[in-house]
Amino acid sequence: MKLSNTWFTALSENSEGHIITIMGRDELNEFMQSGKLKERVEITWKYQGDQKGMPTVELAEQMETVQEALRKAMEKDKLSILTSVYTGGGEKIWVYYTRTTRVFGERLNEALAGFDLLPITIYSEIDPDWEEYQDMYEMKEWSVD
Fold it and tell me: Is the pTM of this model over 0.85?
């Protein structure tokens, strides 16, 4: 299975009226149908946003550096795949599908070891049908260029 790096961007709104930017990964059907990545892990970074609920430029750059460190560690052997990223409303959420949360946690710690303590929380659940991904993927029809 080949992991694409094709993404789309869509906009949504949360209950407080803040714009949420959704980056969704495309071309993941083979991974979804393989049944190998049954666990979903969500990493949430809450922050003090600007008046629109978005991070400052400096914080956005720091988050991008963290995101790339995580992707490199998680996707090197397709143990885990970053499927979507939500930004806005005072939080950034990275959604991964993984084979095992135990190894995911080990790699997470290794990937973030070089950073100062980050204000993140981690949530996981079994999602063999990729329900969160499929819900997010419906946003593709409203993607922006």
Answer: yes
